[in-house]
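Changelog note: in this version the structure field was regenerated for every chain. One regenerated record is shown below for reference.
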Amino acid sequence: MTTGAGRVNRGPAAASDNRQAILRAARAVMAERGYRVPLSAIAREAGVGQGVLYRHFPTRLDLAFAVFEENVAELEAAVAPADGEALGRLWDRLVQQAMETTAFVEMVVDARRNLPEYDGGDRLLALVERALPAAQQAGRVEHSLTASDVVLAWRMVFGVVVTAPDPDSVRAAVQRARSLLPLP
């Protein structure tokens, strides 16, 4: 079967490729246009119909969670192994994600309102708790620093990102904020 655009409809065989294309498109489009971007724009960017998008991700939150889960997998990889450098790797990746995917802050806020069972904050705290002791023992951070302090610093970085006066100033503002925080 050929679609109107000359593409062959591969049906179920294309499901995995379509899902990955949607996730890549969602990450890019939401980063550029925000969490509330029309889902039709994401489908168009992915090269799939809206029906395909909704078959994989019935709601905006489902789609955002799937992208967010990829972010969490990157963070989990950053803390393995849990050596003295793990907190620095985790912190670098958290800051980079904050600058790349501010739309997902909106998703987290939305999830907290609509999904009381959402455990993203607890999962992040657990990752920091896993990496922090080795960093303290290696002398990379003060022993008085807590995992909650690190999460608070991450929220502060998000504040810097979303309140920057223009997109071109974000990187410099985040670097300045990082220099004020007691993290590697």
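Spot check on this record: Residues 15-33 form the longest helix (19 residues). Residues 53 and 170 are 32 Å apart (CA to CA).
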